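Q: Given only this backbone (310 positions), what sequence would you predict?
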């Protein structure tokens, strides 16, 4: 029987193997798409400033370096042999906090399709630990050997591209299965089960995302979720760590930042596009989230992008 030291050694060997494969396919810093549509690889040689995104459901396994993600004041730090799961669309900021040219931050990111999770639940005997409980829509956990092993086999398919159509779906399915078996897998499970509180909140999140520029109508969202307004607020905050209104504001402001960065458009026009009636209120809330007024922030972002590309 393996001792605890043997088990740790096996995990470290598998982690080093995965780091070597990721490093081989990431010659330069950045987020690299791959021949496997749901899989991307990440390399960063230096710590980064916080990046605000609307994070879609996905799995991130870190094999080198360390990163922190922030959700409405909550921080989630993960490093080598940790994995991070987001089960619903969440407005998150993230920054690499440990990386160097000698030991860059290395990570794989696999998109998660809730329908695949549901199909897996239906065809396997994955036990539910707390059925019906509303869970936060993200978590960090330690990476087990079986999960690492499946991840290595998935990434190694990039070396034999002809195998990808047949084997990639099997390995991604195994990875999801391993997560569901873990202690915090219930968070992912509840998002996929129709009728659960988490599933209904996921419907509300999709609605807010789709109509983010429209006025928020809590009664309509509560009806969509088959909840009272007070229950909607409670369960929404359980999943997202914020209220529906706060969520909508984050989505609006992040979309505004994207528009300002990608188009020649002034802040007042962007404010109206994303649903604000008052440009001054937009500027105040923008500065509160991103630390600088819109024009100053965009100028700094463009300088940072220029410096990173030279």
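A: Predicted residues:
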């Amino acid at each position: 029987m393996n001792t605890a030291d043997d088990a740790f050694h096996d995990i470290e060997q598998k982690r080093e193997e995965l780091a070597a494969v990721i490093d081989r396919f990431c010659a330069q810093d950045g987020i690299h798409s791959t021949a496997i549509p749901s899989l991307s690889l990440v390399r960063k040689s230096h710590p980064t400033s916080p990046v605000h995104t609307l994070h879609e459901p996905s799995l991130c396994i870190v094999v080198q370096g360390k990163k922190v993600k922030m959700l409405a004041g909550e921080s989630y730090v993960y490093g080598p042999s940790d994995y991070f799961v987001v089960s619903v669309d969440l407005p998150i900021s993230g920054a690499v906090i440990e990386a160097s040219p000698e030991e860059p931050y290395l990570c794989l990111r696999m998109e998660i399709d809730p329908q695949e999770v549901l199909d897996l639940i239906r065809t396997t005997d994955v036990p539910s630990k707390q059925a019906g409980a509303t869970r936060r829509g993200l978590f960090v956990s330690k990476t087990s050997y079986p999960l690492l092993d499946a991840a290595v086999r998935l990434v190694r398919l990039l070396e034999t591209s002809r195998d990808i159509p047949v084997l990639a779906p099997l390995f991604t399915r195994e990875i999801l299965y391993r997560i569901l078996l873990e202690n915090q897998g219930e968070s992912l499970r509840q998002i996929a089960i129709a009728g659960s509180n988490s599933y209904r909140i996921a419907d509300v999140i999709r609605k807010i995302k789709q109509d983010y520029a429209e006025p928020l109508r809590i009664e309509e969202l509560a009806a969509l979720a088959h909840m009272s307004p007070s229950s909607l607020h409670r369960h929404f905050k359980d999943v997202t760590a914020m209220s529906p209104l706060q969520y909508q504001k984050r989505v609006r402001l992040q979309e505004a930042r994207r528009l300002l960065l990608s188009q020649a458009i002034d802040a007042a026009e962007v404010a109206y596009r994303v649903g604000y009636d008052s440009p001054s209120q937009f500027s105040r809330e923008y500065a509160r989230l991103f630390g600088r007024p819109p024009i100053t922030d965009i100028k700094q972002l463009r300088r940072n992008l220029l410096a990173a590309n030279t």
